[in-house]
Fold this sequence. Notes:
Organism: Pygocentrus nattereri
Keywords: Acyltransferase, Fatty acid metabolism, Lipid metabolism, Membrane, Mitochondrion, Transferase, Transmembrane, Transmembrane helix, Transport
Number of helices: 26
InterPro entries: Carn_acyl_trans, CAT-like_dom_sf, Cho/carn_acyl_trans, Cho/carn_acyl_trans_2, CPT_N
GO cellular component, one term: mitochondrial outer membrane
Structural class: alpha+beta
Mean pLDDT: 88
GO molecular function, one term: carnitine O-palmitoyltransferase activity
Largest sheet: 8 strands, mixed
Amino acid sequence: MAEAHQAVAFQFTITPEGIDLQLSHEALRQVYLSGLRSWKKRIVRLKNNVITGVYPASPSSWLFVVIAILATMYTRSDPSMGLIAKIQEHLPASGSLSVQCQTVVSAVVFSTMLWLSLIFTMKLCLKQLLSYHGWMFEQRGNVSNTTKVWMMLVRIFSGRQPLLYSYQGSLPNLPVPAVKDTIRRYLESIRPLKSDSEFERVNTLAKEFEVSLGNRLQWYLKLKSMWASNYVSDWWEEYIYLRGRGPIMVNSNYYGMDFMYAIPTPIQAARAGNILHAVLMYRRKLNKEEIKPSRIPGTFIPLCSAQCERIFNTTRIPGEETDTVVHWKDSEYVAVYHRGRYFRLWLYQAGRMLSPREIEYQIQRILDDPSTPAPGEEKLGAFTAGDRLPWAQARKEFFGSGVNKRSLDCIEKAAFFVTLEHEELDKKGDDPDITLDRYAKSLLHGKCYDRWFDKSFSVVIYKNGKNGLNAEHSWADAPVVSRMWEYVLATDCFHLGYNEEGHCKGDVNPSLPRPQRLTWDIPSQCQERLAQSLSVAQVLADDVDFHVFAFRDFGKGSIKKVKMSPDGFIQLALQLAFYRDRGMFCLTYEASMTRLFREGRTETVRSCTSESCEFLRAFENGEDVEVCRRFCRSASEKHQQLYRLAMTGAGIDRHLFCLYIVSKYLGIESPFLKEVFSEPWRLSTSQTPVQHLEMFDFVNYPEYLICGGGFGPVADDGYGVSYSLIGEDIITFHVSSKHSCPQTDSHKFGKQIRKALGDLLQLMTNNQKEASRSEQNHSPKPQSKKEL
């Protein structure tokens, strides 16, 4: 308990002579420095709020306006047209000021009002400019004059150096599509999946909904859109994520991987030291808003950054009916799990961030700790992996007071969660493909009790130095976490680095207080419920079938050469792979983003279209090559059109979802909406874009290949596919399904994807030899000796 004594700033004892007061100057110094850091953060936050509030103007522009008004008055002109005189008449302290001072004060007040009016006008103009999306539907290289003028105006009104949240007040609200447009697009999307009789039945339900209940529900949505900044996001978070009573492990959480081949150091504590320090560096930049706002790649169009606010110090709290997401302003420690024990690791001392070497030293102390878990402690995390209702009830009954509450608070209020695995991820001589599959499963669910799935994200460090993360989904979507993780990996390897022995650089401070072991008192009744939650989670985890691979035969560079959208090309390949695998078409989900709008999250692109089905039939039936090429391009262009509509607020599923929620609030059953939400997504796909490509060099350092991440299957009889376009020549895929379904096999589907990609490129290119390489796997061996 040395750390507890060091935390005491003073001690006193009562003696016959009086009170003997003993002050600890070192402890008082630590308190002072921690308070100083807190006040610095408050000042930085206040400064950033001012800068963001007046954006696209700058605080210094106020002085310019004041000087301009005073200079104009000096020439005996009145730019206010009498307003300064009116202000002067109503000054509260006019009797104690000279006439000249009254005039100056009145001029400053008028200048400030004028300045604020100009800022409001500029924000309004920028908001209107960002509401224009016609540029997205124009052909590349054929830009209209309207778009050229718009681009020039956006640049003028955007300012020079925006902070992370500078654009938030200027982003437009998500528009509510017309009911008839959404229904028309919906019917178009299901046409290739329905027989004539089935389609006619759904069409009748849709038309009845459009002319009757739809308009009534739409009125409520329009009312909400005028009041709220986003008519979808709060309901999406609550009803899709927080009200779900099933396990969030596998079903909701997702993961992000380390480098595919390289391990910068085999020393677990050293890798943890650099990774945790890099995460703290990102958090510091985030708090100072020094991270540049996200933009659409290749443009200057900003995206909403609201999801960044809850990356750190955030936890999902279970409830009996619905969970809640709780965010704390700051946290100076992380919760660490190792060999069934929980620790609190402070990452700051005296207001200073610990260095990577100091964090390594503290992590090594945890690894060397010989203590054993308390009864029930080892598998406590299984509560977060099982059903939500038992966890909510157990939390209320067994963790509402005493030592259990204090320890649980420590985990939930931590900046994030860290798991130190005591096993190596891979063994010498293992098949790399099998290792990647095992790696994905480990990150997604682990042992079902060695992650805290409720935390915003958990960092996992393996014994051989490999790492990854698991993220909770309700508070943000994958691109937000992916952006942070790319920064962390690049900073770890290319900026912080390691010494020759593989340890973190820098010196060790041996006087650091030891990490604090959390204590628990878990009764037998609680342990029985914990075992039940673990049993539910284990069945779910064992059923997950994963296959991860890097497709190296070609990448987006070759796809662009045949003048096709890389994403559209891959989506067609996935459609072709599924058609060959199952002999049928299916409702396909592709995640798009709506972050062009304030507080926007995602929208669904229904990738299976009449055009794609027409192409697949022609291609599989061996029709003429030119006919297949024409159908392929038509299908790709249709996909791109749907993607653009989804991004600009004209999607299908979020609108129908909100109409469904309103109908439930009104207590009205809609046969049409019931039909819509009974359809399974047998193919759920998502692209994870690389956002910090400039921080990596895949040509000179091919072993440092980032691998993206993945998620579990959405349907029991379907596939989940996540993919990333890495550089110009690599595409990584993460394929998931369930062992319990005899119709799905992730490895078999992975082979179908490889073949489909090659067949499509062979169809679309004139160089048949280049395309035929897709049947072979030319994965070069990593140059680093520290291979996976």
